[in-house]
User: What shape does this take?
Amino acid sequence: MNAETFCEQFATFAEAPNGIAKLRELILELAVRGQLVPQDPKDEHALELLDRISVKRQQTECDESVRAQKSLPPISPTEIPYQLPAG
Assistant: This one.
């Protein structure tokens, strides 16, 4: 189905039982898949990008001018300055 056909049939979809909920679900699914925007064939795969970032981070941490981040100490329940909501 192309965009023109979808627009022509939108009223039919919207009036169907649970039609709006199904349309929202479809749009969310398409968004998660990245199908709502034109795809650029020059874009690299996400795993390749993450690998490049990991290598760059390791190189940066080895550099003496930049120190690796230290993890923060855990917070004990007595140190929390406010009441946490249930759940």
